[in-house]
Design goal:
The structure holds two protein chains of two kinds. By secondary structure, chain A is α/β, with parallel strands linked by helices. Chain A has four helices and eight strands; from the N terminus they run βαβαββαβββαβ. The longest helix of chain B is centred in the C-terminal third of the chain and has 20 residues. Chain B is globular, with a radius of gyration of 19 Å. The two termini of chain B are 21 Å apart. The chains are: A alpha/beta, B alpha/beta.
Chain lengths: 180, 310
């Protein structure tokens, strides 16, 4: 099944603006960023979290810790997938206890990845809050999960795919909707 | 390579370099879990594993059991001496009975070479060989590769010396296959009576003198000397063995400065290796043990974590 391009919903400029807006929302919601930590979900949540970290640093002037989370071992669909996902390393080199953890991912869809991420985070400690920042919310939730910070809401059908490209991995910043 | 397309882990002779690379990379991710306060991931919830040890084991058995717990699998361990083996039941019957209780993976150590292969052919569950006679001990080989890779950053073109009773050692056999597949050069040293008769088949060079073998070596691995071999007359005495082949600071002086000292355990201090060398900063004996748990967690994920191919 090959997918073809339907529409581009965000370009480089729109992605930059959305991440800057989310940065301000994180600061506003948490009063300051003293106890805020960022955790990017592999794979494309990581470069997005890294950008939020540098924007937060620009505004607040104090570095916010950044961790990397691989949720493979917490997936609920391992026994249903033909292609076994490769396990990558989780790297959260700081204490999560009593922190405000902002989980960062590219697309929020069924909510199952975020469920897995929350289970993984709680194995690392007891955060004061877990908040969720995503670049795209495409709907179709299968679990009672919502994002605290959304770059853009994009209504989609289930047969479509949302492709987030970031220049750190894909050499370009763009969000495309693909259809069959 | 993304997934291991095999049911069992029986030997490193029959595993490809790509598969070894995948296992070692997965193990690196698993080691992070061991550093957490809560050393547990839910990946294998509800999966049952049997540990069947027909030979004594402390380290390997504890390592497999902890790896199972860290992955949230349920497991039972049976020791040979307390099992129905002593009541005359055949291996196949024992395991088939356990299999119908829902076990999906069997870890087995057995005194007979080829026992793990026999078992794997006869049951549907995955089999991991935890040592079969004088044949192989693949998870030990993998954890040794993992430790070397972790410390040296590569395996390719390293010179690894294995010293001791290579002839009777399943650890040596797994290491020779695994290291050569990953591009390392393996040489062996020890008394001629303890060298394997079919050296050509392994493609390794054998030395009588350890001093010669370790010249320019990156890694030296001492094997445990099994005292029962002395009774067969293969070497005169432990003391004499230690005098000529025991690893000491002086004996490995010709190796590279950043030489790694390895031993699969349990160590006979003052026989295969001097105490000071075993406890020196160059010794990675305890890193091997840590790596063993990570490698076994990786194997459980790779064998049981995905969809089961019928």
């Amino acid at each position: 099944m090959t997918l073809k391009h339907k529409v581009t919903v965000m370009n480089e400029k729109a992605i930059g603006q959305a991440l800057r807006r989310i940065t301000h929302e994180i600061i506003e919601r948490n009063k300051d960023v003293k106890d805020v930590v960022l955790v990017g979900i592999r794979k494309r949540g990581v470069p997005l979290a890294t950008r939020l970290q540098s924007y937060l640093n620009e505004i607040e002037g104090s570095p916010v810790p950044l961790g990397i989370l691989d949720i493979t071992l917490y997936r609920d669909d391992l026994s249903q997938r033909e292609d076994q996902p490769v396990v990558h390393t989780t790297d959260i080199p700081f204490d999560l206890n009593n922190k405000h953890v902002v989980v960062v991912d590219d697309v929020l869809y069924t909510g199952r990845t975020i469920r897995a991420a929350m289970d993984a985070l709680i194995d690392h400690g007891r955060p004061a809050t877990i908040q969720l920042a995503v670049l795209i919310d495409r709907g179709h939730r299968e679990l009672p999960i919502r994002a605290d910070y959304v770059g853009k809401n994009v209504p989609t059908s289930r047969s479509e795919q949302v492709e987030v490209k970031v220049h750190e991995i894909d050499q370009v910043d763009r969000v495309d909707i693909m259809e069959t | 390579m993304q997934a291991l397309r095999r049911k069992d882990i029986l030997s490193l002779e029959e595993i490809s370099a790509e598969e070894i690379t995948l296992i070692l990379e997965t193990a690196r991710s698993m080691r992070e879990i061991m550093l957490r306060k809560i050393k547990k991931v839910p990946t294998l919830r509800g999966r049952a594993i049997l540990n069947l040890f027909y030979e004594p084991s402390t380290r390997t058995k504890a390592s497999f059991e902890l790896a199972q717990k860290y992955m949230s699998a349920d497991s039972v361990s049976v020791a040979g001496s307390s099992s129905s083996l002593v009541k005359g039941e055949t291996l196949k019957d024992t395991v088939r009975n356990v299999e119908v209780m829902g076990v999906e993976c069997v870890i087995m150590r057995h005194p007979v070479s080829g026992a793990a292969h026999y078992l794997a052919r006869n049951i549907n569950a995955s089999v991991i060989n935890a040592g079969d006679g004088m044949h192989e001990h693949p998870t030990q080989g993998l954890l040794d590769l993992f430790t070397i890779l972790d410390k040296k950053g590569r395996l390719e073109k390293l010179k690894v010396v294995i010293v001791g009773d290579v002839r009777h050692s399943r650890v040596a056999r797994s290491n020779i296959w695994g290291l050569q597949k990953m591009g390392a050069e393996v040489v062996i040293a020890g008394p001629p009576t303890l060298m394997p008769p079919d050296l050509e088949a392994f493609g390794v060079k054998a030395y009588d003198r350890v001093e010669e073998a370790v010249e320019n070596a990156d890694v030296v691995m001492a094997l445990r000397l099994q005292k029962e071999r002395q009774d067969c007359g293969l070497f005169p005495s432990l003391r004499e063995y230690a005098e000529i082949y025991g690893l000491t600071e002086q004996r490995v002086a010709n190796a590279k400065d950043d030489l790694l000292i390895m031993h699969p355990g349990p160590i006979n201090r003052g026989v295969e290796i001097s105490s000071s060398l075993a406890d020196s900063p160059r010794s990675v004996v305890l890193d091997q043990v840590t790596g063993g748990v990570a490698v076994r967690m990786a194997l459980f994920y790779l064998l049981l974590g995905g969809i089961k191919e019928e």
